[in-house]
Amino acid sequence: HQRVAKSFREGRVLLAGDSAHLNNPLGGFGMNSGVHDAFNLFEKIEPLLRGKGSEEQLALYDRQRRKVTHSFTQM
What pTM, to 2 d.p., does this model score? Predict the structure, then answer.
């Protein structure tokens, strides 16, 4: 079976990798998508930690990764 979380973000809690989605290991997308999640999330969190980002970046992470995950996991 394959699953995607309803949201990758709830307040200050963010899901990435296998905590956000579960998919068939065929093609190795599971581990690779976790790496993509981590890199994408770092790009959003790092400016926030420096006081230069906005919370909208975290919402953007949710939209970006859910779109990609649905296109691969729910096929």
Answer: 0.74
45 vs 57: CA distance, rounded Å:
8
Find out whether 9 and 59 touch, Cβ atoms under 8 Å: yes
Separation in Å, CA 73 to CA 12, 30, 50, 56: 25, 9, 34, 25
Determine the 3-state secondary structure of 23 from DSSP. Answer: coil
What's the mean pLDDT when you consider all of the chain? 81
Q: How far is Cα 13 from Cα 33, in angstroms, rounded to an integer?
A: 19
